[in-house]
Amino acid sequence: MTQKLRRINFEAMGSHCDIQIYNNSRVDGRKQVKILMNEVNRLEKKYSRFSEDSFVAKINASAGNDLGLEIDYETLTLFDHARSCHEQSDGLFDITSAALSKLWDFNQGKVPSLEEIEKTLPLVGFDKLELHDSRLKMPANMEIDFGGIVKEYAADSAASLGRKLNIEHGLINLGGDFAVIGAQPDEQPWPVGVSDPKDGRKLMARIILMDGGLASSGDYERFFEHEGKRYSHIINPLDGWPSSGLRAVSVAGNLCTVAGSMATVAMLKSESEGIEWLRESGLPHVYMTHDEQIGGVGHTSDLRSL
């Protein structure tokens, strides 16, 4: 019997999301996509720094507490990934940079003063966290933000859950971050479009996925221009200023979480260093430079230079 595509669209993590799976049964297919959607919603509720009831809010409220806070295995896994990314990027990937991000008002287009940035920088630094076994201690006024990890992690988690439900063909799309549950029927790949930073209605490239995931990072979602200069929402934790390298990066990897971290680090590096970082990774990728040139290598089709 030919399997039919079952699909659900929803909003989560500040993004438009959709889940597609193949299932013979309309009823079972609907149940399965709702289970996967609920998994994404669970992780948003747990790790959103914008919710007063989230576990991240509880972690940040514990800053300065000498007793610290007991954290669960799932959160430990995220901290371990964040530590690895911090080390491999020489400190550019840092989940403790939330205080710096708050200085930059992308709604009002506000540029903080040098004094504000210098005052906040001491509150940033993953190496200032004390994590022993499952107990975390943070310095006073420090904050963490899993925003650079959790959406990609949620895509991977939903895909893993889908496999446990015996789903053989599926695609999780969380606002442009993708995780694959097997190829499409007849071993057909999933063609995934990468948005053009200049015009979100157009594609910069199309990447072919058979498994794993794809994640994107760029300044096309949140940025502002002030006195003729463009400011990205991706903040360098070492100096407190927005990244000024590549305009956009998309990376494919064995996990969406890994791909997302690779893309973020590439954005935080200088343009030339970011391109070299991507090339050395050996992963399929596409990027746009500051002068809107497109490049990349790997499983891509319709890759075009503008």
Structure characterization notes:
The protein is of the alpha+beta class. It has a domain at about 55-145: T-fold (Orthogonal Bundle), CATH 1.10.3980. Helix content is about 30%, strand content about 25%. The protein has an eight-stranded antiparallel β-sheet. Strands 3-5-4 form a three-stranded antiparallel β-sheet, with no helix packed on it. A hairpin with a 2-residue loop joins strand 8 (about 190-195) and strand 9. The longest helix has 22 residues, at about 25-45. The termini are far apart.
Secondary-structure blueprint:
Layout: E1 4-12, E2 15-23, H1 26-47, H2 55-61, E3 69-70, H3 73-88, H4 98-103, H5 114-120, E4 130-132, E5 135-137, H6 150-164, E6 170-174, E7 177-181, E8 190-196, E9 199-209, E10 213-218, E11 223-226, E12 229-232, E13 248-253, H7 256-268, H8 271-281, E14 285-288, E15 294-297, E16 300-301
Antiparallel strand pairs: 1-2, 2-6, 3-5, 4-5, 6-7, 7-10, 8-9, 9-16, 10-13, 11-12, 13-14, 14-15
List keywords for this structure.
306 residues; alpha+beta; T-fold; eight-stranded antiparallel β-sheet; 16 strands; globular; disordered C terminus
- Catalogue the unreliable spans: 301-306
Q: Alpha-carbon distance between the termini? A: 44 Å
Helix count, per DSSP?
8
User: Can you list the strand order of the major beta sheet?
Assistant: 1-2-6-7-10-13-14-15
Which class do the helix and strand fractions yield?
alpha+beta
Largest β-sheet summary: 8 strands, antiparallel
Counting DSSP E segments of at least 2 residues, the number of strands comes to 16
- Would you tell me the overall average pLDDT? 89
Radius of gyration: 20 Å
**Beta fraction of the residues?**
25-35%
The oligomeric state of the chains shown is single chain
* SSE topology string: EEHHEHHHEEHEEEEEEEEHHEEE
> CATH homologous superfamily of one domain, by name?
ApbE-like superfamily
Shape: globular
The helix content, as a percent range, equals: 25-40%
What is the CATH class name of one domain?
Answer: Mainly Alpha
CATH fold description of one domain:
T-fold
CATH architecture verdict of one domain: Orthogonal Bundle
